[in-house]
Structure formats: C-alpha cells, structure tokens
User: Fold this.
Amino acid sequence: NLFNQTSAGLSQGNTGIGLYLGIVDRTLAQAIITQEVQALKKLPNVFSLEDGIIGIIPFLNILATRQLKQPLNALLEEVDSMIYKKVGYSKHKLDVYQSTHLSLYLAYRISMTHQAPFYKSLWTSVLSSITETILLSFPAITSQSHHFSLNYPPAFYLLCFLFGLMSGIDHHVFLKKFIAILPYVVEYFPHSPSNKLYYYLVLQGIKKELHLNDANLDNHINLLLSSTSLNNIEEELNNKIYVEDGICGLYLLCHYLGANHSLLNKLSKFSLEQLKTSTEILRLYENPNYLANHIGFLNGIGGILLTSLLIRLNNIRNGFNI
Assistant:
C-alpha cells in the first residue's frame, strides 16, 4: 500500500521499497518497474540521486536485470541522451552538487558490461571531466559535521573520486591531480567516530587504486584507523538507523568499500540489533502515519529493508554466526 501511495524517488519516494518488494517476490517486479518508469516522466530534476532520474534508474535496472533477465537498455539510452545534452558540450557546466551525483551514476553506467566500447570511452571521458571539477572544489570545502552523514563533504567528494578511479578514469593523470590536493585532504580529521571510519575507508581505497606511497597520507590513514572505536560508533549511531545518517548507511559503506570481515561481522550484529529493538524502528512499525512519512531509501523503511536483506545475505556468505 505504501508503495502505491507514494511517488518515485530515493529520499522520500518509493523506489527503495519497490526494489525490495521486487526482489523478495519476483511476480511483482514487472508491475513495479512499469509504475516507476511512468513516474519518471513527472520528475523535473535529472541530476540528483535523491529525487531525480539518475537515482532511480540504477534501482530499476538492477531489479529488471536480476528478476526479469532484461536490462532496461532503451530507458538507459534515453537517459544517456538527456545527460549528454547537458554535459557533452563545454558551455554547459554543472555545479558541484550535480557533479558529485552525476559522477556516481556514470560510474554505475560505465560498470555495465554490455555497453559498446565507444560508449564506455565516451562516458569515461565525461566522468573524467566531472571528477576533475570535484577535485578542484575540494580545497574550498568549509563544512565540518559532528554527526555521521553519507554527505559529509570531505569523504563524499573523495568517494566520488574513488568510484571514478574504479570505473577506469586515467590513474596516471589523476594521481598527479590527487597529489596536488593532498595537503588539504590530510587536514581533515572528522569529529564523528563514524565519519572517521568513512574517511578512512575512502582514503584507503584511493591509496590502493593509485598505488600511492606517501608518508603524510599513510600517517593520516593510520591515525584515522587507530582513533576509530567500534564502541564509540555504536554509541553515536544508537537509535540512528537510516541510510543517509545511520547504521544502514555505514554498513553499506563498509560493504562496498571492502571493510575487513571482522569489522563487517561486528557491524552486522549491531545493525541487526538496532533494526529489531531501537525506539526508532519500533516507532516505524507501531505508528502508521509516521511510517507513511518515512518510506524512502535514504531516510526511511526502504533503505532499512534492503540493508537488512544485504546483511543477512552477507552473513550467510561469510559464515557469520548471528
């Protein structure tokens, strides 16, 4: 009912719930995809992961590929055309917010194996240009947060850079560009225990991708790790369960950025405990009106359900006894 009563989107929309429902019940997949595609026509914002087309398309394509064995190629190409009209010419510039969000979408797009070499080369070139914009903006970051957030700027900007590297942008060229901003990178030492872990995972990933040996970077990475306490993280994220600013988001970061099994195991236990007994989860299940306002992937039950499913699958794969 919540899915049918809400429009598409990752922040407050129904796309996360749609993916979850389609995964647990294959017979629902086609109807969910059809409904979401119709909703895309009403979205004015293309270049936003939170409430735009580029945030919704990967979810729908994952569902179509997994459950229907048919990627949404025609729809993806239509979105490609929309994007290229905006960023394919030098006179059209994106702001940093749009650049970060589009870079993550393009990293996903490039990762798709069925793309022809020409299109992969084209999008890699566009992604390289956008990634350069993000790196050049890094020294101007001024915000510091005392609370965990996936949008914590120093980590989020470099997360976009990391996914760009993993997608095939020129490592030699971007090694030099990263070294140029490295003095600014090592200035950041997050207040939040969870942001410390976030920043550590991103910097460790960049170091690995670039094969970079730099004493200042190594010292900073080691300092971030040594000052990261799981007890402090659990204290900080107690009753904070959502993807955007809670335990689900931190677990997804650890999963996709290759945290070690010991850390994943410990986070799994804490995450599942929070997703069963926290006052916030109880409020969601006991108050229908409150739940109706918290159904999104980023800030609601959609992200909780998908993360919980991933945790349980990982626990089975990794042999964690939880």
About this structure: The chain has a mean pLDDT of 91.
